[in-house]
Design brief:
- There is one protein chain.
- By secondary structure, the chain is α/β, with parallel strands linked by helices.
- Helices cover 26% and strands 24% of the residues.
- A seven-stranded mixed sheet has the order 2-1-3-4-5-6-7, with helices on both faces.
- Strand 3 and strand 4 form a beta hairpin.
Length: 155
């Protein structure tokens, strides 16, 4: 883990609070996930690696029809991000930090999943922009009639 990854992890813990209840226990099997990505995208590979390092076992599937796959999964156009991850019967659109995914999974919600629209810099898999202070990033619930914020990532 490099310094940047370490600082991002510390920041996530400070922002999200203790997440040990959502952590993968030592020796537990990783959470299986499938990440669908545009065949030419490279940040998706970095995000999959991040998930692999945080208790997930990710299978990456290049998908030339990614937008169609994403919309068919129930993600509205307004919440489309960079890639779609399916796990545990839910969908996760974009570069969502692992502790937020685990918190969501632990709550066993009746919604479809979570989404971070676009490709915000500084999130897992996305490089930070030098000299730019990032605004808080909203993580939205997928599967509600109107957008509902599930969490906010402060960078």
């Amino acid at each position: 883990m490099n310094r940047k990854q370490f600082l991002s992890a510390v920041l996530a813990l400070v922002v999200l609070g203790p997440v040990s209840a959502f952590a993968t226990p030592a020796g537990a099997a990783p959470i299986k996930a499938t990440l669908y990505k545009d065949p030419s995208c490279t940040c998706c590979e970095a995000y999959a690696k991040y998930l692999d390092q945080n208790g997930f076992k990710v299978k990456v599937v290049p998908d030339p029809s990614l937008e169609q796959t994403t919309l068919q999964a129930g993600v509205p156009q307004s919440l489309v991000g960079c890639h779609l991850t399916k796990l545990g019967g839910y969908v996760f659109e974009g570069h969502i930090p692992a502790p937020i995914i685990k918190k969501y999974l632990a709550s066993h919600p009746q919604t479809k999943g979570l989404a971070i629209p676009g490709m915000p810099a500084g999130l897992p898999g996305m490089p930070a922009m030098a000299g730019m202070k990032a605004a808080p990033i909203q993580v939205y619930v997928v599967g509600t009639p109107k957008p509902v914020v599930f969490a906010t990532v402060n960078q």
